[in-house]
From TrEMBL:
Residues 1-25 form the signal peptide. Keywords: Lysosome, Membrane, Repeat, Signal, Symport, Transmembrane, Transmembrane helix, Transport. Gene3D superfamilies: 1.20.1280.290. It comes from Anopheles gambiae. It is a multi-pass membrane protein. This is Cystinosin homolog. The keyword Glycoprotein does not apply.
Length: 400
């Protein structure tokens, strides 16, 4: 009997060719379902539609069952859909689903597929927001743009005051330096999360049903704030500043921030941290700066018994933005019955309130406590006195 000995290399090539043929014969594996759009807002007492889009190869009938966990907030029509394969087993169909708003709230609606594993349902969900009133939604949107404009413009009055006086005496360098650090790290956070697909994917991996929290106006504001603050810092090197300088306390705080950033960077380099964790560290630094940055300016005003050199227009615009921001949160809390986002996690509301309280303090200093040192005549006298004092080797407006 003759035995045939095959070359091992030929055998491997033959197996690979066979596998290729089998794979090419299977052009599509399964079907998928997507709920579109994935964010729906419906008003109480009104109806809103969304669509279940099913596409792909389907070997048998399947059923889409929509969750009914929030029947007190919304009614869904229909709650179950039978999906049947088309010619050749391929399906490409769109099914309309209607929501009827009953009570305000925010929640997810899922579409579960039976039998399981027959259809890919990873994107079979929508985020539903039931609101009390459509006009409140519009008012909230308008308020949002107004306070965005107020906060954006608020950086410019201080630069105008500095230019007119040709002096930065009265402007706290500690406040300015801390503000630059805060806006810089905030801009880095926003730009990275908004423009980096890699970091955005990290965020979505941790929050599979979340949306990127950074919007285009967040990026625009943070970049503008950083540039405007940097221009104000530049004025400090050009105009009369007396003996004012950044205090040791401020340098110490900034040094701590730098050390924290370096440590976070090392942790990223050693794969202990992800880049998203590094960005969160930057956001915590921004929050810390917001809590402390106004203190040096308030102390400087108290020591000088004057607000000359500190722009009250800046304060008024910041106060307007802060009040409108909190008003928007309260309106949204009522409209969506979402008070937990305000009082359950008070960080954002608390920071806004904290800033507004400092604005009120600055207004009291300017209009009540030191009002006789804030008129135009006194401003000119203060500026000329500062120049004269500086020519003699110092200034009365110096920081410790």
């Amino acid at each position: 009997m003759t035995r045939t000995c095959r070359n091992p290399i030929v055998t491997i090539l033959w197996l690979c060719a066979l596998a290729t043929v089998r794979c090419s014969a299977q052009t599509t594996i399964g079907a998928s379902v997507v709920l579109d759009p994935q964010d729906v807002t419906v008003i109480v007492g009104e109806r809103q539609s969304f669509f279940a889009k099913v596409r792909g190869m389907l070997s048998q009938d399947a059923r889409l069952n929509l969750t009914t966990d929030h029947t007190d907030l919304v009614e869904i029509f229909p709650t179950s859909i039978v999906v049947s394969p088309g010619d050749g087993g391929f399906i490409d169909r769109v099914y309309e689903i209607v929501l009827l708003g009953l009570s305000p709230g925010q929640f997810d609606v899922d579409a579960n597929v039976l039998p399981t594993g027959l259809i890919d349902d990873a994107a079979a969900f929508i985020r539903v927001t039931v609101a009390n009133s459509q006009p409140i939604i519009l008012i909230s949107s308008v308020i949002g743009w107004i306070y965005f404009a107020a906060w954006t413009v608020s950086f410019w009055p201080q630069m105008i005051v500095n230019y007119r006086r040709q002096s930065v005496v009265g402007l706290s360098f500690d406040f300015l330096t801390l503000n630059l650090v805060g806006h810089s790290v905030y801009a880095a956070f926003n730009c990275a999360l908004f423009w980096s697909g890699f970091i955005e994917q990290e965020y979505l991996d941790r929050n599979p049903r979340g949306l990127n929290p950074v919007l285009a106006n967040d990026v625009a504001f943070s970049i503008h704030a950083t540039i405007a603050t940097l221009l104000t810092v530049t004025q400090c090197f050009i105009y009369e500043r007396g003996e004012q300088k950044v205090s040791r306390i401020a340098w110490g705080i900034i040094t701590v921030f730098i050390v924290v950033i370096i440590v976070a960077g090392v942790l990223v380099g050693t794969a202990t941290f992800h880049w998203l964790d590094f960005l969160y560290v930057l956001s915590y630094i921004k929050l810390s700066v917001t809590l402390i940055k106004y203190v040096p300016q308030a102390v400087l005003n108290f020591r000088r018994k004057s607000t000359v050199g500190w722009s009250i227009e800046n304060v008024l615009l910041d106060f307007t933005g802060g009040m409108l921001s909190m008003l928007q949160m309260l309106l949204n809390g009522y409209n969506y019955d979402d008070w937990a986002s305000i009082f359950g996690d008070p960080t954002k509301f608390g920071l806004g309130l904290f800033s507004v309280m400092f604005d009120i303090l600055f207004m009291v200093q300017h209009y009540v406590l030191y009002r006789n040192r804030a008129n135009e005549k006194t401003l000119q006298e203060d500026s000329s006195t500062t120049t004269t004092t500086a020519s003699n080797g110092g200034s009365k407006d110096s920081l410790p």
